[in-house]
Amino acid sequence: MHGGTVGAMRLRQFVVDGLGHLSTIIADDVTRIAAVVDPRRDVDVYLEAARDAELRIAHVVETHLHNDYVSGARELAALTGATHAIGAGAELGYEHRPLRDGDTFEVGSLRFTTLETPGHTPEHVAYAVADTTRADEPALLFTGGSLLVGAVGRTDLLGQENAVPYARAMFRSLHDVILRHDDFVGVYPTHGAGSLCSTGIASTPSSTIGYERRHNPMVRPSEVELFVSTLLRPQPAFPRYFDRMRPTNQAGPPLIGAGVPEPRPLSLDEARAAVAGGALVVDARASAEHAIAHLPDSLSIPAGASFGTWLGWVVEPDQPIVLVLAHAADWDDLARQAMRIGYEGSLVGHVAGGVRRWAEAGLPLESSGRISIDQLAASVAAGGPDSPLVLDVRQAGEYAHAHVPGSLHLTAGTLPERLADLPRDRPIAVICASGYRSSVAASLLRRAGFDQVSWVANGVPVWQAQGYPVERGEGADDALPDAARPRGAEEPLVAHRH
After folding, report:
1. 197 counts as catalytic
2. Which of 16, 198, 340, 455 is positioned for an S-S bond with 442, CB 3.0–4.6 A?
3. 494: enclosing H helix or E strand
4. Could you tell me how far CA 256 lies from the centroid of its own chain?
5. How far apart are CA 141 and CA 133, in angstroms?
6. pLDDT tens for each residue of 66-109
7. Which residues contact 364 (CB under 8 A, 6 or more apart)?
8. Which pLDDT tens digit goes with each residue over 133-157?
9. What phi and psi values does residue 44 have, to the nearest 5 degrees?
Protein backbone atom coordinates (compact mmCIF):
# COMPACT_ATOMS: atom_id res chain seq x y z
CA MET A 1 0.00 0.00 0.00
CA HIS A 2 1.18 3.49 -0.82
CA GLY A 3 -0.20 6.72 0.49
CA GLY A 4 0.26 10.33 1.51
CA THR A 5 -1.30 13.77 1.50
CA VAL A 6 -0.89 16.70 -0.89
CA GLY A 7 -2.67 19.95 -0.01
CA ALA A 8 -6.21 18.99 0.95
CA MET A 9 -5.82 15.67 -0.83
CA ARG A 10 -5.25 12.36 0.93
CA LEU A 11 -4.38 9.38 -1.26
CA ARG A 12 -3.63 5.74 -0.58
CA GLN A 13 -3.00 2.97 -3.11
CA PHE A 14 -3.66 -0.74 -2.66
CA VAL A 15 -1.76 -3.39 -4.61
CA VAL A 16 -2.73 -6.98 -5.44
CA ASP A 17 0.51 -8.50 -6.68
CA GLY A 18 -0.87 -11.62 -8.35
CA LEU A 19 -3.32 -9.65 -10.48
CA GLY A 20 -1.11 -6.62 -10.89
CA HIS A 21 -4.13 -4.65 -9.67
CA LEU A 22 -3.96 -1.12 -8.30
CA SER A 23 -6.82 0.67 -6.56
CA THR A 24 -6.96 3.93 -4.66
CA ILE A 25 -8.72 5.75 -1.86
CA ILE A 26 -8.59 9.48 -2.49
CA ALA A 27 -10.12 11.94 -0.02
CA ASP A 28 -10.52 15.58 0.86
CA ASP A 29 -8.41 15.76 4.00
CA VAL A 30 -10.56 18.55 5.44
CA THR A 31 -14.12 17.26 4.91
CA ARG A 32 -12.96 13.61 5.17
CA ILE A 33 -15.09 12.71 2.13
CA ALA A 34 -13.54 9.97 0.00
CA ALA A 35 -13.79 8.08 -3.28
CA VAL A 36 -12.50 4.61 -4.06
CA VAL A 37 -11.23 4.09 -7.60
CA ASP A 38 -11.43 0.64 -9.29
CA PRO A 39 -11.94 -1.44 -6.12
CA ARG A 40 -11.18 -5.13 -5.92
CA ARG A 41 -13.74 -7.77 -4.87
CA ASP A 42 -12.65 -8.11 -1.23
CA VAL A 43 -13.73 -4.64 -0.16
CA ASP A 44 -13.06 -4.99 3.57
CA VAL A 45 -9.64 -3.38 3.02
CA TYR A 46 -11.26 -0.09 1.94
CA LEU A 47 -13.78 -0.09 4.78
CA GLU A 48 -10.99 -0.67 7.29
CA ALA A 49 -8.80 2.03 5.76
CA ALA A 50 -11.69 4.52 5.75
CA ARG A 51 -12.55 3.69 9.35
CA ASP A 52 -8.93 4.10 10.48
CA ALA A 53 -8.61 7.47 8.74
CA GLU A 54 -12.13 8.61 9.72
CA LEU A 55 -13.21 8.97 6.09
CA ARG A 56 -16.68 8.67 4.57
CA ILE A 57 -16.74 6.88 1.23
CA ALA A 58 -19.17 8.89 -0.91
CA HIS A 59 -18.16 7.72 -4.39
CA VAL A 60 -17.06 4.44 -5.92
CA VAL A 61 -15.47 5.21 -9.28
CA GLU A 62 -14.49 2.87 -12.12
CA THR A 63 -12.50 3.54 -15.26
CA HIS A 64 -13.81 0.57 -17.28
CA LEU A 65 -15.42 -2.85 -17.24
CA HIS A 66 -12.65 -5.05 -15.91
CA ASN A 67 -11.55 -8.18 -17.72
CA ASP A 68 -9.16 -9.54 -15.10
CA TYR A 69 -11.12 -9.56 -11.85
CA VAL A 70 -14.58 -9.30 -10.36
CA SER A 71 -15.22 -5.68 -9.45
CA GLY A 72 -15.94 -4.73 -5.86
CA ALA A 73 -17.69 -1.50 -6.88
CA ARG A 74 -21.26 -2.74 -6.56
CA GLU A 75 -20.51 -4.32 -3.19
CA LEU A 76 -18.77 -1.25 -1.81
CA ALA A 77 -21.51 1.09 -2.98
CA ALA A 78 -24.15 -1.14 -1.38
CA LEU A 79 -22.30 -1.27 1.92
CA THR A 80 -21.56 2.46 2.16
CA GLY A 81 -24.43 4.09 0.25
CA ALA A 82 -21.87 5.66 -2.08
CA THR A 83 -22.63 6.68 -5.64
CA HIS A 84 -21.20 4.23 -8.16
CA ALA A 85 -19.85 6.16 -11.17
CA ILE A 86 -18.56 4.72 -14.45
CA GLY A 87 -18.44 5.70 -18.11
CA ALA A 88 -21.86 5.66 -19.75
CA GLY A 89 -20.69 3.14 -22.34
CA ALA A 90 -20.41 0.47 -19.65
CA GLU A 91 -24.23 0.17 -19.61
CA LEU A 92 -24.31 -1.56 -16.22
CA GLY A 93 -27.31 -3.69 -15.40
CA TYR A 94 -27.77 -2.18 -11.93
CA GLU A 95 -27.93 1.22 -10.25
CA HIS A 96 -25.08 3.59 -11.09
CA ARG A 97 -24.28 7.06 -12.36
CA PRO A 98 -23.28 7.00 -16.05
CA LEU A 99 -20.65 9.60 -16.93
CA ARG A 100 -19.88 11.18 -20.29
CA ASP A 101 -16.93 13.16 -21.52
CA GLY A 102 -16.62 16.39 -19.55
CA ASP A 103 -18.98 15.35 -16.75
CA THR A 104 -17.77 16.39 -13.30
CA PHE A 105 -18.48 15.53 -9.70
CA GLU A 106 -17.03 16.62 -6.37
CA VAL A 107 -15.46 14.65 -3.56
CA GLY A 108 -15.29 17.43 -1.00
CA SER A 109 -12.96 20.01 -2.55
CA LEU A 110 -11.65 17.50 -5.11
CA ARG A 111 -13.19 17.87 -8.57
CA PHE A 112 -13.26 14.83 -10.86
CA THR A 113 -13.61 15.46 -14.61
CA THR A 114 -14.49 12.54 -16.87
CA LEU A 115 -12.34 12.01 -19.97
CA GLU A 116 -13.46 9.53 -22.61
CA THR A 117 -10.39 7.43 -23.45
CA PRO A 118 -11.44 4.35 -25.44
CA GLY A 119 -8.86 1.81 -26.48
CA HIS A 120 -8.16 -0.70 -23.74
CA THR A 121 -11.93 -1.18 -23.73
CA PRO A 122 -14.51 0.75 -25.77
CA GLU A 123 -16.22 2.35 -22.75
CA HIS A 124 -12.98 3.32 -21.01
CA VAL A 125 -12.75 6.69 -19.26
CA ALA A 126 -10.04 8.42 -17.26
CA TYR A 127 -10.54 10.99 -14.50
CA ALA A 128 -8.67 14.25 -14.08
CA VAL A 129 -8.67 15.32 -10.42
CA ALA A 130 -8.14 18.90 -9.28
CA ASP A 131 -7.59 19.98 -5.70
CA THR A 132 -9.65 23.16 -5.89
CA THR A 133 -8.23 24.48 -2.61
CA ARG A 134 -4.99 24.99 -4.55
CA ALA A 135 -5.85 25.31 -8.25
CA ASP A 136 -8.45 24.50 -10.87
CA GLU A 137 -6.01 22.59 -13.07
CA PRO A 138 -5.66 18.82 -12.56
CA ALA A 139 -3.14 17.50 -10.09
CA LEU A 140 -3.45 13.88 -11.15
CA LEU A 141 -5.12 11.46 -13.55
CA PHE A 142 -6.68 8.09 -12.85
CA THR A 143 -5.75 6.45 -16.13
CA GLY A 144 -7.20 2.98 -15.62
CA GLY A 145 -5.98 0.74 -18.44
CA SER A 146 -4.90 3.49 -20.83
CA LEU A 147 -1.56 5.06 -19.83
CA LEU A 148 0.29 2.72 -17.46
CA VAL A 149 3.67 3.13 -15.82
CA GLY A 150 6.09 2.19 -18.57
CA ALA A 151 3.41 0.77 -20.86
CA VAL A 152 -0.15 1.16 -22.13
CA GLY A 153 -3.09 -1.20 -21.85
CA ARG A 154 -3.49 -3.95 -24.42
CA THR A 155 -6.36 -3.78 -26.90
CA ASP A 156 -6.91 -7.43 -27.81
CA LEU A 157 -8.79 -8.67 -24.73
CA LEU A 158 -12.17 -8.36 -26.45
CA GLY A 159 -11.15 -10.34 -29.52
CA GLN A 160 -8.54 -10.13 -32.25
CA GLU A 161 -11.09 -8.52 -34.56
CA ASN A 162 -11.13 -5.51 -32.22
CA ALA A 163 -7.40 -5.31 -31.54
CA VAL A 164 -6.45 -2.96 -34.39
CA PRO A 165 -9.39 -0.51 -34.22
CA TYR A 166 -9.09 -0.35 -30.44
CA ALA A 167 -5.33 0.27 -30.75
CA ARG A 168 -6.02 3.20 -33.07
CA ALA A 169 -8.51 4.53 -30.55
CA MET A 170 -5.89 4.11 -27.82
CA PHE A 171 -3.40 6.19 -29.81
CA ARG A 172 -5.93 9.02 -30.08
CA SER A 173 -6.84 8.77 -26.40
CA LEU A 174 -3.20 9.00 -25.39
CA HIS A 175 -2.12 11.83 -27.67
CA ASP A 176 -5.32 13.87 -27.89
CA VAL A 177 -6.45 13.56 -24.27
CA ILE A 178 -4.03 12.18 -21.69
CA LEU A 179 -0.67 13.52 -22.87
CA ARG A 180 -2.08 17.01 -23.28
CA HIS A 181 -1.79 17.41 -19.51
CA ASP A 182 1.18 19.14 -17.89
CA ASP A 183 4.30 17.20 -16.97
CA PHE A 184 3.68 17.54 -13.23
CA VAL A 185 0.29 15.77 -13.36
CA GLY A 186 0.35 12.44 -11.54
CA VAL A 187 -0.52 9.17 -13.28
CA TYR A 188 -2.38 6.55 -11.25
CA PRO A 189 -3.30 3.50 -13.35
CA THR A 190 -5.34 0.43 -12.44
CA HIS A 191 -2.93 -2.10 -13.93
CA GLY A 192 0.52 -2.53 -12.44
CA ALA A 193 3.45 -4.94 -12.71
CA GLY A 194 2.20 -8.51 -13.11
CA SER A 195 -1.06 -7.56 -14.81
CA LEU A 196 -2.03 -9.47 -17.93
CA CYS A 197 -3.66 -6.33 -19.31
CA SER A 198 -0.32 -5.30 -20.79
CA THR A 199 3.35 -6.24 -20.89
CA GLY A 200 6.42 -4.36 -19.71
CA ILE A 201 4.65 -2.52 -16.89
CA ALA A 202 7.05 -0.99 -14.38
CA SER A 203 6.90 -2.01 -10.73
CA THR A 204 6.35 1.59 -9.59
CA PRO A 205 2.60 1.99 -8.91
CA SER A 206 2.37 5.63 -10.03
CA SER A 207 4.19 8.13 -12.18
CA THR A 208 3.77 11.54 -13.82
CA ILE A 209 2.83 12.65 -17.31
CA GLY A 210 6.30 14.13 -17.76
CA TYR A 211 8.13 10.96 -16.76
CA GLU A 212 5.97 8.81 -19.02
CA ARG A 213 6.32 11.28 -21.89
CA ARG A 214 10.09 10.91 -21.66
CA HIS A 215 10.55 7.27 -20.73
CA ASN A 216 7.49 5.21 -21.70
CA PRO A 217 8.39 3.38 -24.94
CA MET A 218 4.73 3.15 -25.97
CA VAL A 219 4.41 6.93 -25.96
CA ARG A 220 7.28 7.40 -28.40
CA PRO A 221 5.61 6.30 -31.66
CA SER A 222 4.19 9.48 -33.15
CA GLU A 223 2.45 7.78 -36.08
CA VAL A 224 -0.67 5.75 -35.42
CA GLU A 225 0.13 2.67 -37.51
CA LEU A 226 3.59 2.35 -35.98
CA PHE A 227 1.96 2.54 -32.55
CA VAL A 228 -0.54 -0.16 -33.55
CA SER A 229 2.12 -2.54 -34.82
CA THR A 230 4.25 -1.95 -31.71
CA LEU A 231 1.35 -2.46 -29.31
CA LEU A 232 0.11 -5.61 -31.01
CA ARG A 233 3.38 -7.46 -30.75
CA PRO A 234 2.98 -10.65 -28.67
CA GLN A 235 1.28 -9.88 -25.38
CA PRO A 236 1.03 -12.18 -22.37
CA ALA A 237 -1.79 -14.65 -22.82
CA PHE A 238 -4.70 -14.56 -20.43
CA PRO A 239 -6.50 -17.30 -18.50
CA ARG A 240 -9.87 -18.69 -19.45
CA TYR A 241 -11.62 -16.97 -16.55
CA PHE A 242 -11.11 -13.59 -18.26
CA ASP A 243 -13.93 -14.44 -20.64
CA ARG A 244 -16.41 -14.33 -17.75
CA MET A 245 -15.25 -11.15 -16.01
CA ARG A 246 -16.61 -8.46 -18.34
CA PRO A 247 -20.16 -9.88 -18.54
CA THR A 248 -20.13 -10.56 -14.79
CA ASN A 249 -19.13 -6.99 -14.00
CA GLN A 250 -21.59 -5.52 -16.47
CA ALA A 251 -24.56 -7.52 -15.18
CA GLY A 252 -23.54 -6.99 -11.56
CA PRO A 253 -21.63 -9.43 -9.35
CA PRO A 254 -23.72 -10.97 -6.58
CA LEU A 255 -23.60 -9.12 -3.27
CA ILE A 256 -21.66 -11.14 -0.72
CA GLY A 257 -20.90 -8.70 2.10
CA ALA A 258 -17.63 -7.22 3.22
CA GLY A 259 -15.98 -10.29 4.69
CA VAL A 260 -13.99 -13.20 3.37
CA PRO A 261 -15.60 -16.67 3.60
CA GLU A 262 -14.93 -18.09 7.04
CA PRO A 263 -12.47 -21.01 7.22
CA ARG A 264 -14.26 -24.31 6.72
CA PRO A 265 -12.16 -27.13 8.19
CA LEU A 266 -13.51 -30.47 7.00
CA SER A 267 -13.26 -33.70 8.92
CA LEU A 268 -11.83 -36.63 7.01
CA ASP A 269 -15.31 -38.06 6.55
CA GLU A 270 -16.60 -34.71 5.27
CA ALA A 271 -13.70 -34.31 2.88
CA ARG A 272 -14.09 -37.83 1.53
CA ALA A 273 -17.82 -37.33 1.10
CA ALA A 274 -17.24 -34.10 -0.81
CA VAL A 275 -14.76 -35.81 -3.13
CA ALA A 276 -17.13 -38.72 -3.64
CA GLY A 277 -19.76 -36.16 -4.58
CA GLY A 278 -17.57 -34.67 -7.30
CA ALA A 279 -15.39 -32.11 -5.51
CA LEU A 280 -11.88 -31.55 -6.84
CA VAL A 281 -8.96 -31.65 -4.40
CA VAL A 282 -6.65 -28.68 -4.97
CA ASP A 283 -3.33 -29.05 -3.18
CA ALA A 284 -2.02 -25.58 -2.29
CA ARG A 285 1.17 -26.79 -0.64
CA ALA A 286 4.58 -26.27 -2.20
CA SER A 287 5.34 -28.22 -5.36
CA ALA A 288 7.98 -30.35 -3.63
CA GLU A 289 5.57 -31.33 -0.85
CA HIS A 290 2.95 -32.33 -3.41
CA ALA A 291 5.50 -34.48 -5.24
CA ILE A 292 6.41 -36.37 -2.07
CA ALA A 293 2.85 -37.25 -1.05
CA HIS A 294 -0.61 -36.03 -2.02
CA LEU A 295 -4.23 -37.07 -1.96
CA PRO A 296 -5.17 -39.23 -4.94
CA ASP A 297 -6.09 -37.30 -8.12
CA SER A 298 -5.36 -33.95 -6.49
CA LEU A 299 -4.39 -30.95 -8.58
CA SER A 300 -1.30 -28.99 -7.59
CA ILE A 301 -1.77 -25.21 -7.50
CA PRO A 302 0.75 -23.94 -4.94
CA ALA A 303 -0.24 -21.03 -2.72
CA GLY A 304 1.28 -17.70 -3.65
CA ALA A 305 0.48 -14.66 -5.72
CA SER A 306 -0.49 -16.69 -8.81
CA PHE A 307 -2.87 -19.12 -7.10
CA GLY A 308 -6.03 -17.32 -8.21
CA THR A 309 -4.86 -16.98 -11.80
CA TRP A 310 -4.18 -20.69 -12.09
CA LEU A 311 -7.37 -21.60 -10.29
CA GLY A 312 -9.29 -19.63 -12.88
CA TRP A 313 -7.29 -21.16 -15.69
CA VAL A 314 -7.53 -24.89 -15.04
CA VAL A 315 -10.58 -25.32 -12.77
CA GLU A 316 -14.12 -24.84 -14.03
CA PRO A 317 -16.10 -22.10 -12.24
CA ASP A 318 -18.86 -24.44 -11.02
CA GLN A 319 -16.46 -27.12 -9.78
CA PRO A 320 -16.65 -27.70 -5.98
CA ILE A 321 -13.18 -27.48 -4.46
CA VAL A 322 -11.61 -29.03 -1.38
CA LEU A 323 -8.31 -27.40 -0.48
CA VAL A 324 -5.28 -29.04 1.05
CA LEU A 325 -3.29 -26.38 2.91
CA ALA A 326 0.22 -26.28 4.31
CA HIS A 327 -1.10 -24.10 7.13
CA ALA A 328 -4.68 -23.39 8.12
CA ALA A 329 -3.84 -19.66 8.09
CA ASP A 330 -3.41 -19.87 4.29
CA TRP A 331 -7.19 -19.97 3.96
CA ASP A 332 -7.67 -16.20 4.11
CA ASP A 333 -5.33 -15.35 1.24
CA LEU A 334 -6.51 -18.18 -0.99
CA ALA A 335 -10.18 -17.40 -0.31
CA ARG A 336 -9.53 -13.77 -1.25
CA GLN A 337 -7.89 -14.84 -4.49
CA ALA A 338 -10.85 -17.10 -5.24
CA MET A 339 -13.25 -14.21 -4.55
CA ARG A 340 -11.42 -11.95 -6.99
CA ILE A 341 -12.19 -14.30 -9.87
CA GLY A 342 -15.70 -15.20 -8.72
CA TYR A 343 -14.89 -18.61 -7.19
CA GLU A 344 -15.83 -17.90 -3.58
CA GLY A 345 -18.87 -20.17 -3.85
CA SER A 346 -16.74 -23.07 -5.10
CA LEU A 347 -14.74 -23.52 -1.89
CA VAL A 348 -16.25 -26.41 0.06
CA GLY A 349 -13.53 -26.17 2.72
CA HIS A 350 -10.08 -27.48 3.56
CA VAL A 351 -8.96 -30.82 4.97
CA ALA A 352 -8.50 -30.31 8.70
CA GLY A 353 -4.98 -31.40 9.61
CA GLY A 354 -4.02 -31.63 5.93
CA VAL A 355 -1.97 -34.49 4.53
CA ARG A 356 -0.53 -35.37 7.94
CA ARG A 357 -3.98 -36.08 9.38
CA TRP A 358 -4.95 -37.99 6.23
CA ALA A 359 -1.88 -40.20 6.51
CA GLU A 360 -2.36 -40.80 10.25
CA ALA A 361 -5.80 -42.17 9.48
CA GLY A 362 -4.28 -44.70 7.10
CA LEU A 363 -5.97 -43.20 4.04
CA PRO A 364 -4.26 -43.64 0.66
CA LEU A 365 -1.67 -41.18 -0.62
CA GLU A 366 0.14 -40.95 -3.91
CA SER A 367 3.60 -39.68 -4.80
CA SER A 368 4.87 -38.13 -8.01
CA GLY A 369 7.98 -38.73 -9.99
CA ARG A 370 10.46 -35.99 -9.20
CA ILE A 371 13.78 -35.57 -10.96
CA SER A 372 16.55 -33.04 -10.62
CA ILE A 373 18.16 -31.13 -13.45
CA ASP A 374 21.21 -33.42 -13.30
CA GLN A 375 19.03 -36.53 -13.42
CA LEU A 376 17.12 -35.13 -16.38
CA ALA A 377 20.35 -34.34 -18.20
CA ALA A 378 21.62 -37.87 -17.63
CA SER A 379 18.36 -39.40 -18.87
CA VAL A 380 18.32 -37.23 -21.98
CA ALA A 381 21.96 -38.03 -22.74
CA ALA A 382 21.38 -41.77 -22.33
CA GLY A 383 18.66 -41.82 -24.96
CA GLY A 384 16.87 -45.05 -25.76
CA PRO A 385 13.23 -46.09 -25.25
CA ASP A 386 13.28 -45.17 -21.58
CA SER A 387 14.45 -41.63 -22.22
CA PRO A 388 11.70 -39.19 -21.23
CA LEU A 389 9.95 -36.77 -23.51
CA VAL A 390 10.83 -33.36 -22.08
CA LEU A 391 7.66 -31.26 -22.06
CA ASP A 392 8.33 -27.53 -21.70
CA VAL A 393 5.22 -25.73 -20.43
CA ARG A 394 6.48 -22.14 -20.43
CA GLN A 395 5.37 -19.34 -22.73
CA ALA A 396 6.31 -19.49 -26.40
CA GLY A 397 8.74 -16.60 -26.02
CA GLU A 398 10.50 -18.24 -23.10
CA TYR A 399 10.81 -21.48 -25.03
CA ALA A 400 12.18 -19.73 -28.11
CA HIS A 401 14.77 -17.95 -25.99
CA ALA A 402 16.27 -21.20 -24.68
CA HIS A 403 15.04 -24.75 -24.17
CA VAL A 404 16.26 -28.27 -23.55
CA PRO A 405 17.30 -29.79 -26.90
CA GLY A 406 14.56 -31.95 -28.38
CA SER A 407 11.91 -30.82 -25.90
CA LEU A 408 8.27 -30.43 -26.89
CA HIS A 409 6.55 -27.14 -26.21
CA LEU A 410 2.94 -27.00 -24.99
CA THR A 411 2.00 -24.18 -22.66
CA ALA A 412 0.55 -25.42 -19.40
CA GLY A 413 -2.87 -23.84 -19.67
CA THR A 414 -3.54 -25.57 -23.00
CA LEU A 415 -2.82 -29.11 -21.77
CA PRO A 416 -6.45 -30.12 -21.18
CA GLU A 417 -7.13 -29.43 -24.88
CA ARG A 418 -3.86 -30.93 -26.15
CA LEU A 419 -3.73 -34.34 -24.45
CA ALA A 420 -4.03 -36.18 -27.75
CA ASP A 421 -0.69 -34.65 -28.79
CA LEU A 422 1.18 -36.45 -26.01
CA PRO A 423 2.31 -40.09 -25.90
CA ARG A 424 0.93 -42.33 -23.18
CA ASP A 425 3.54 -45.06 -23.69
CA ARG A 426 6.60 -42.96 -22.93
CA PRO A 427 7.85 -41.22 -19.76
CA ILE A 428 7.22 -37.47 -19.70
CA ALA A 429 9.35 -35.01 -17.75
CA VAL A 430 7.62 -31.65 -17.30
CA ILE A 431 9.79 -28.54 -17.00
CA CYS A 432 9.21 -24.78 -16.73
CA ALA A 433 11.27 -21.94 -15.29
CA SER A 434 11.14 -22.61 -11.55
CA GLY A 435 8.94 -25.64 -10.94
CA TYR A 436 5.61 -23.85 -10.39
CA ARG A 437 3.97 -24.26 -13.78
CA SER A 438 5.47 -27.71 -14.25
CA SER A 439 3.90 -28.84 -10.97
CA VAL A 440 0.47 -27.69 -12.14
CA ALA A 441 0.98 -29.28 -15.55
CA ALA A 442 2.30 -32.59 -14.20
CA SER A 443 -0.69 -32.93 -11.88
CA LEU A 444 -3.04 -32.17 -14.78
CA LEU A 445 -1.44 -34.96 -16.80
CA ARG A 446 -1.66 -37.44 -13.93
CA ARG A 447 -5.35 -36.64 -13.44
CA ALA A 448 -5.83 -37.30 -17.17
CA GLY A 449 -4.41 -40.80 -16.82
CA PHE A 450 -0.76 -40.29 -17.79
CA ASP A 451 1.07 -42.59 -15.37
CA GLN A 452 4.70 -41.95 -16.34
CA VAL A 453 4.95 -38.25 -15.49
CA SER A 454 7.84 -36.64 -13.62
CA TRP A 455 8.05 -33.13 -12.24
CA VAL A 456 11.40 -31.45 -12.85
CA ALA A 457 12.50 -29.54 -9.78
CA ASN A 458 13.89 -26.11 -10.73
CA GLY A 459 13.78 -25.33 -14.44
CA VAL A 460 15.44 -24.24 -17.65
CA PRO A 461 17.42 -21.35 -16.09
CA VAL A 462 19.09 -23.85 -13.73
CA TRP A 463 19.69 -26.21 -16.67
CA GLN A 464 21.53 -23.37 -18.41
CA ALA A 465 23.40 -22.28 -15.28
CA GLN A 466 24.76 -25.80 -14.84
CA GLY A 467 26.22 -25.72 -18.33
CA TYR A 468 23.89 -28.07 -20.16
CA PRO A 469 23.23 -27.29 -23.84
CA VAL A 470 20.17 -25.43 -25.06
CA GLU A 471 18.46 -24.82 -28.35
CA ARG A 472 16.98 -21.48 -29.33
CA GLY A 473 14.18 -20.18 -31.48
CA GLU A 474 12.74 -23.48 -32.66
CA GLY A 475 9.51 -25.36 -32.19
CA ALA A 476 7.56 -22.97 -29.97
CA ASP A 477 3.86 -23.68 -30.31
CA ASP A 478 3.07 -20.30 -31.83
CA ALA A 479 0.16 -21.75 -33.78
CA LEU A 480 -1.99 -21.63 -30.68
CA PRO A 481 -4.48 -18.76 -30.62
CA ASP A 482 -3.47 -15.96 -28.25
CA ALA A 483 -6.42 -16.56 -25.94
CA ALA A 484 -5.29 -20.16 -25.44
CA ARG A 485 -1.71 -19.38 -24.50
CA PRO A 486 -0.81 -19.25 -20.82
CA ARG A 487 0.27 -16.02 -19.23
CA GLY A 488 3.86 -15.14 -18.63
CA ALA A 489 3.18 -14.77 -14.92
CA GLU A 490 2.10 -18.22 -13.77
CA GLU A 491 5.16 -17.73 -11.66
CA PRO A 492 5.73 -14.34 -10.03
CA LEU A 493 6.76 -11.81 -12.64
CA VAL A 494 10.19 -10.25 -12.72
CA ALA A 495 9.08 -6.63 -12.56
CA HIS A 496 10.49 -3.99 -14.85
CA ARG A 497 11.92 -1.13 -12.85
CA HIS A 498 12.85 2.43 -13.69
Report:
1. no
2. 455
3. none
4. 21
5. 17
6. 999 999 999 999 999 999 999 999 999 999 999 999 999 999 99
7. 296
8. 999 999 999 999 999 999 999 999 9
9. -60, -25
